[in-house]
Amino acid sequence: MSKFVSLSDAGFNHPSWLTAVGTLAGYGLVLLVLFVALFVLPYLLFTL
Fold first, then answer.
1. DSSP state at residue 26
2. Residue 41 confidence (pLDDT) above 80
3. Which of 11, 15, 40, 42 could form a disulfide with 36 if both were Cys (CB 3.0 to 4.6 A apart)?
4. How far is CA 2 from CA 5, 6, 8, 21, in A?
5. What is the DSSP letter of 11?
């Protein structure tokens, strides 16, 4: 018999996991916006 434990039984349904994922997603979005503003937009402005 398999000893597989589903994610809902492993303690991943705690609100702290949602907070951690939301924080990482927020930081990722901020980094993406900064990357576009600092690198992509100047590249497009100077190549056109």
1. H
2. yes
3. 40
4. 9, 12, 17, 29
5. T
User: Exposure pattern of 1-35 as b/e (b: 16+ CB <10 Å)?
Assistant: eeeeeeeeeeeeeeeeeeeeeeeeeeeeeeeeeee
Give the global pTM. Answer: 0.68
Residue 38: alpha-carbon gap to chain centroid: 20
Whole-Å CA distances, 1 to 4, 5, 9, 10, 14: 9, 12, 18, 18, 28
Closest CA to 30 of 22, 41, 18: 22
